[in-house]
Amino acid sequence: DGAHGVENGKAIGHVTSTYFSPTLKRSIAMALINGGRARFGEVIEISTAKNKTARAAICDPVFYDKKGERQDV
After folding, report:
1. DSSP class per residue in 41-68
2. 7/45 Cα distance (integer angstroms)
3. Which among 11, 55, 57, 59 is least surrounded, fewest beta carbons within 10 Å?
4. What is the residue-wise DSSP string for 14-42?
């Protein structure tokens, strides 16, 4: 939480929350990124500890089971 999205060495937003998804078996995060909705599909860099970065895809907040089909299992 609190890591910055960076582009060309400048902060373009920040991570607001992170969680490990047992369904997806990977980490997921929510972030506020400048122009976020217009940037769906882009991959950006997120700063991490020790001057490293991680790649993150900007996607719709509802990215899993968008039609709600799993609710009626």
Report:
1. T-EEEEE-GGG-EEEEE---S--SSTT-
2. 7
3. 55
4. EEEEEEEETTTTEEEEEEEETTGGGGTT-
Predicted confidence (pLDDT) per residue in 11-49, tens digit: 999 999 999 999 889 888 999 999 988 999 999 999 988
Residue 16 tokens, joined: 């607001």
Task: Assess whether pLDDT exceeds 80 at residue 64.
Answer: no
Measured CA to CA, the distance from residue 43 to residue 16 in angstroms comes to: 17
Who contacts 30 (Cβ-Cβ below 8 Å, separation ≥6)?
15, 16, 17, 18, 61
Residue whose pair of structure tokens reads 């895809």 in the numeric block: 57
The pLDDT value given to residue 73: 62
Query: What does the chain come to in residues?
Result: 73
Number of helical H runs and strand E runs in the chain: 0, 5
